Amino acid sequence: MLITLFLQQQRKYHYWLAGLGIALLASMLLSLQLGAVGVGIEALWQPVSALEEQVFWQLRLPRTLLAVLVGASLALCGAVLQVLLHNPLAEPGLIGISSGASLAAVLTLSLSVSLGITLPYWSLSLAAFVGALVITLLLLSLSRRRLGSGALLLFGVAVGILANAVLTWLLYMADDASLRSFLFWMMGSLGHGQPLSFVWWLPAIVTLVWLMRQGRALDILALGDSQAQLLGLNVHKLQPRLVLAVCLLTAFSVAMAGPIGFVGLVVPHLLRLLVGGKQRFLLPASVLAGGLVLTLADVAARTLLSVGEMPIGAVTATLGAPVFIWLLVRRYAGA
Q1: Which of these, 255, 242, 247, lies nearest to 201 by C-alpha position?
Q2: Which of 202, 207, 212, 282 is the most buried (most CB within 10 A)?
């Protein structure tokens, strides 16, 4: 009887993963097909004009792949943090990485404007990554001192408050041109990292694969630090590695697309409500669902307005905020 129930549960997990995989593939095909220039996936097998070839291979395909990678990274980081911090409402921005990256990018913009320097297209992504890396090193220092998940959470909140205070002052003192650049960065856009080489993506892909394979360890860690140690898990060795992996993926995501909220919060939490909290399933499911959500959000951002595109951060926040409110009501009000 127990074996039958186990097999049924495993079959359900496989169905979910297969369904999410098919939905992600369909969303990628939709993203490749839609756009201002009438070229789609037919560019893969039939001759097209030079302009259409450039649009497909240099703009549309890299943007679609970047949406999948950033969405997968944010959702996976959210799923890991919700176990690591023992908080089902945790997300990558909660530990200060996004705030540090955003502050570094806006400071770089502010200095370039004040000095009259024209920055290369990759400079903001590099500045954001350096800012996130600084916060990462501080978080690793905390985790190695064994201060616990509560200290990491409080540190992230404090960093977010400090970064928002500095950003407020920079926005207040900025002129109109600088203000527009600041706001464009802070609202998030896949255009920030789209022109960058695929080499930038390789460390994130390796980290993503490693983190996705930690499901068994996270299932044990979800029982609590004491229980995990009794079961033979080296918590004090694993925790800094998990923090480093989460920080690197979050840094990559913010560097490539700016701060994008709610994906890391809503996706893993909804999956946990729908299919349970087994991390061995939840981690790959979060990767697929995160890529799916951000790809669809990017399609909406590019197609809802006839002129220009909407900030993808605004799209995810608009869709994610009502879901977040529902989650809070369901959890704390017994709805």
Answers
A1: 255
A2: 282
